[in-house]
Fold this protein.
Amino acid sequence: MANNLNIEVSPLSRVEGHGDLIINVKDKKIEKLMFRIPESPRFFEAMLVGRKYDEPSHITSRICGICSVAHTCASIKATEEALGIKPSEQTINLRKLIYHHENVQSNVLHVYFLAAPDFFGVGSVIPLVETHPEIVNIALRTKKMANDMVRIIGGRAVHPIRTVIGGFTKLPTEEEMIKMKEILQASYPDLEKSLEILRTLKIPEFERKTEYISISDSVDYALYDGNIKSTDGWEIDDQDYLDKMKEKVVKYSTAKHCWVNGNVFMVGALARFNNNYQKLTDNAKKYAEELVLKAPCYNTFMNNIAQFVEIVHSIDDSIRLIDEILEEGLDEDKAMAEIKPKAGRGVGVVEAPRGLLIHDYTYNDKGRVEKANLIIPTGMNYANIEKDMHALVPSIIDKSEDEIKLACEMLIRAYDPCISCSAHLLNVKLVNK
Amino acid sequence: MAFISKNDSDKSGDTKTNLKIIGFGNKYRSDDGIGIRVVEELGKLDSFRNIDIIDGGTSGTDLIFLVKDCRKIIIIDAIDAGQDVGDVVNIKVDDVEEFIKSDFKSLSLHDLNLADILKLIKALKIDADISIIGVKPKKIDFGDRLSPEIEKKIPEIISLVKKETGI
């Protein structure tokens, strides 16, 4: 039991990048609670200024090795909106297809490699190889499948090269599309096995109702395109995001915090699930039901389960999209739309695996960027993460310091935060020979 | 991942070759981009035309798929093995006693970091000959240029790659 606590976790492990957690409790009251981020992608905004219209998507793709398709697509959509470019239906379907598989790549890693070790009581994925080899094997097979999908469509498994403004520089062949469908169909036994494993997980009981924001579409479970929608009942055109969203710099973190209508909110798989449950495939709904995930869900820890349900949906919907593309027939004439530089402003909003991602560019009449604003999902979640911890810590204050620390770390990890822009200097100690 | 020498086709999931050279890093984090810069240079060399040279970018787990199908892997990366800033090292993964997570800067490859992936490769008992050639960076802040003292090490790193591969 802890009357006084001084928790400082720096850096927090198994989140993407570098974040610090600081909690001070005195006489069972929280005196200080901070989730501190010493890194930020602001550099990229400055770097885009002056760049020609065909460059931003390739540059911003490098912000993140996990969300590279999301940054590519948000960037392309912002530029296309600004320049008035209309991509073909075929292009949009192929973008939706590649998009599904970045979501699968990312969700697989988070559910199996980054979050699962908490639930199985092991420190990281390394011991999982011994204790739960089936999880590691399913994760690797599913990741490989998603990599193959992204590579066939985008030319690379990350940082896609064929996905450009206006369309695609090269289309996949019909044979490749058929092969993709076969690979996807072969993945269902792994989903069934995953369901068996995930059913055994003990998800912490925790509820805190907040506002959930995602994009939303009248037909699709929106990932690539849609209006911005809130569980608080409002919905706006994605071009008007500034009407609702405000960013603010907080002094202990270089990352900006984000508020909507003055409130904190959550983005990510759980937000998408809460807003768009009805658009999931029937099969994905069945998996959600089996895992006791119902919309609306206010338990942040269930974000991990929502991510798994999305994997099922993405596989189902990819098969549908492939059938639709094959039925229409791949047409080289529809691969690229006409591009003419002009002055204008455009906003590209997509769902990155971790939630709403916004690119906002202003171009001059020579087609060069004059101003860029990027709002990343983790930046939107920071304030909500702190609110969640303010609710969680008093409810577990009678547990040991180690248990409280682990619960807070698990809560932050449940958001799948993507904090840094991945530098990765390798640090090793050599065998003394 | 991207094949530098074949810019539009990344076959990293399909090929089974004897040798792969992979550069890791973020080219917008100053010296962290050394691995990418070196593989870009290697891609221009005629003698390496038939070798799979891969821009691994900031992806991590994918290394497992590359290693599984390959006899020998050379990784080019920013690396701190206790040497001075700017010093180039060539080490075998088997000679690494401990992969240390740096506590002052992100090590993330944005999924699992390279240290975790190399540990995972060992845990999965994947038998592969992996060398890491790299230089200790001076700075890994945001920036699209290498420090001059790191940039001038590119020829030395390429010489080591040539020696290691016999090309």
Residues 2-165 of chain B form a domain with the Rossmann fold fold (CATH 3.40.50.1450). Chain B has a mean pLDDT of 79.
